[in-house]
Each structure stands twice: as C-alpha cells, then as structure tokens.
Amino acid sequence: MLNSWVVMPTCLPTVLRRCHACASERFRANGKFRVNANHKLLDAWLLVLCTACGDTAKLTVLERMNVRSVRPELLDRMHDNDPGLAAELLQDPVVRRRNRIALDWDGAWRLDTGGSDHLDREVIDVSVRFAARIPVRPVRLIAEGCGLSRAEVERLITEGKLVSAVRLSGKLSGDFTFTLKR
Description:
The protein has 182 residues and is α+β, with helices and mostly antiparallel strands. It has helices at 72-79, 83-91, 93-99, 138-146, 150-158; strands at 2-9, 14-16, 26-38, 41-50, 56-66, 102-104, 109-112, 123-130, 162-164, 176-181.
C-alpha cells in the first residue's frame, strides 16, 4: 500500500535580503501590496517588513505595465492584499531574480503523514508530494515521518534498505517516492 505524505506551507517564508536601514538580512511578508498608477502605466509591489527594525521594503511585482495588459483578477487580488497571491509571487523565480531575494523556509512548513499506522510495517512505500516549492532535505522528511533520527536514515540508505529513484542527499522541492525496508 502506497502511503501519501504532503509537505505543506504553514506561513509565508522569510525573505532574505539586506535591509537599507539596519543591515539585517531578514524580512517577513504580511501579504500587503502597493499598487500605483501613473496615467495608463501601473507599478505594483509586495511589501515586506524588516524583522529587526520594521523598515518596509518593496519587492517589484509589476513595473511600468500598461493597465490594459494586467489581468483584472490579478489587480483585484492585489487590491484585496491576498496572502495566497503573496505566496505565489514569492515562489515565482522571475520575481525572486528581479528583486535579488532568496527564501528561508525554516519553521514555515509541516509534514502531513496522514497518521502513524505505517510505522509498524516491515516495508513501506511512500509518495511525498510538495504543496509548494519548499526546498527540504529528504533525509529530514523521512526521519520526521518515520520517527527515526537522521543518522538512522543515513545508515538505512547506506545499507540499501531505503531506496528512491531520486538522490536523497541534498535538498528537493519536487515530488518523489521511496521504499523503506526495516
């Protein structure tokens, strides 16, 4: 039987970028947007607050876009300060590259294993799905989901008792499956 685990975001990740006011490097997004129209041209920013001094920084979302070329539902979501849109935009590689930011997901996700009935089986097959592109070490997920230490998970990989089609070292942010034989 294939078990299904889901890595789910619990809040918006911390934005890593240097603060101009205090030189801190951590900002938190609260889902607020600022939209500015200059005649027929539109600018839009996602506002982030420095975790140290509270200074506001603007992450460019739209720059000098013709109003007619912006989808009305996107504009509505920005005017409504939609936190779901903030999450989508923070994950957008174009937005991250344009604003030269990185994301820190520590403490901003959880693993849903659907219960602990799999823990006592000799062999478990697990499909891990990511609800958002959250980079996490598979070893950490497997250790947390199976109630093992990371060292035990590493030992199981070395012994060939934990196998997957993907490399389990490093970080992943895409779906994968693995089989664990105790």
